[in-house]
Predict the structure.
Amino acid sequence: MSASPDWDKLEAEIIACRRCPRLAAYREEVARTRRRAYRDWEYWGKPVPGFGDPEARILIFGLAPGAHGSNRTGRMFTGDSSGEFLYTALYRAGFASQPSSSWRDDGLELKGAFISATCRCVPPDNKPSPQEMLNCRPFILAELDLLENLRGIVALGRIAFDNILAIYRARGNALPALEFKHGATYELGHNLPWLLASYHPSRQNTQTGRLSVAMFDAIWAQARRMLE
């Protein structure tokens, strides 16, 4: 991602984290047992650091690694259907160098964007506890400090949306109650990034039609307009 000592230090801290015993045990159990389709893979099985352009103007904020996606590959939104849906959209919008995401060293680069998540470890049933989300908060706070060019945040799903608001409120920003609604945009205040809400590109949302390709493309077109 970067040769910066600050980014390298943060990445090392994330990868070594064991603050949540339940999540540490689960991510490692998934890595040991593996899905049959990936039985020949060596799973990552550790917390997943953020990924992208350290000069990013947009932060893409999700929920947590997938059990057989990021927990297997070691890169955010990589190796599963959610990642394919996301990266193909980012590629069409000019934020990604290629439309596929199969492995952390496959050459994919983000342009002006950085991807992070509420939790860095895969949670059972995709449901981290409030305390587990709080335990991960210092990592996103550190990323926000290092992303000096940040202009906006795209929150993928209600949990990510609520957690970004909680993070800025914890930093002393008086934010009103904001409604999560796909495509809704909010100005968070002076010298703060804008916030754009989107449904999460989970298989449940994309296969049921709740989030279509056109709807997701519209999110990134909207983000482009807001940057300009």
In short: The CA atoms of residues 82 and 202 lie 5 Å apart. Residues 5-227 form a domain with the Uracil-DNA Glycosylase, subunit E fold (CATH 3.40.470.10).
